[in-house]
Amino acid sequence: MASVRDKILKPHVCCEFVCVYVCVWQAFLNPTTKFETEAVGDANMRTLQKGDIIQLERKGYYIVDVAMTKPGQPIVLLNIPDGRAKSVAKA
């Protein structure tokens, strides 16, 4: 059975005589990296432009990825991580 170190570290030859272990970055990725939530916001959110940073009460800070250009088009906000542990979202 392979050890945890064998799963995370993979041999990499950087020259003839030296063998160095490098971390495989995929071993550290969360398989669920995208969470979508629909919400209703204040009418003043229509004036937000791409790149604006806002704080939603008790939710955190967000940056506007897609601003509203037509009535009825949703605004897309990206969460700015704050470093706190968060609960696992249910898909």
Can I get a quick summary?
With 91 residues, the chain is mainly beta. It has 1 helix and 5 strands; from the N terminus they run αβββββ. β1 and β2 form a beta hairpin.
Structure write-up:
With 91 residues, this protein is mostly beta strands. It has one domain (4-79). It is built from one helix and five strands, in the order αβββββ. It has one helix at residues 4-8; strands spanning 9-13, 19-23, 53-56, 60-66, 76-79. The strands form two sheets. The chain has a three-stranded antiparallel beta sheet with strand order 3-4-5, with no helix packed on it. Strands 1-2 form a two-stranded antiparallel ribbon. It is elongated. It starts with a helix and ends in a 12-residue tail after the last strand.
